[in-house]
Please model this.
Amino acid sequence: MRLLNYFTRLLRTLDIKRIILETGIVVLLFGVGFSVRPAYRAYRSYQVDRNLAAARMAALHGDWSTAREKARSVLMDRSKDFDAFRIWARACGKLGEPRAYIAAAQFFSDPRANRDDLLELYSVIWVRSHLARVVGGW
Model:
């Protein structure tokens, strides 16, 4: 009997309208959160495409630091994008970065690399090979 009295007092103290309102607000927030996700993905895809176009233009004009940064931002989102990797590797080679040797070595195992890519990266390997030997021997 005491237990029944306890539950009836508890139900009287609870405000059912308030609970329904709070539950509705939480459900509404979850609905808005899940609907925003596809819009963000579309915006992110547009931003990555825009960065790839900017990297191509920067490489075309010889602005290798900008080309490297824009191609790197594309590679962070799409790691398998070969055009972005090509621009990034060329930019690293033109700027004399040590990572250019490793990137050039990855090109030789990739069937998508064309003749011009390989010729340019041979020169990168030729210039950077002494650094690789020094680092490997150290």
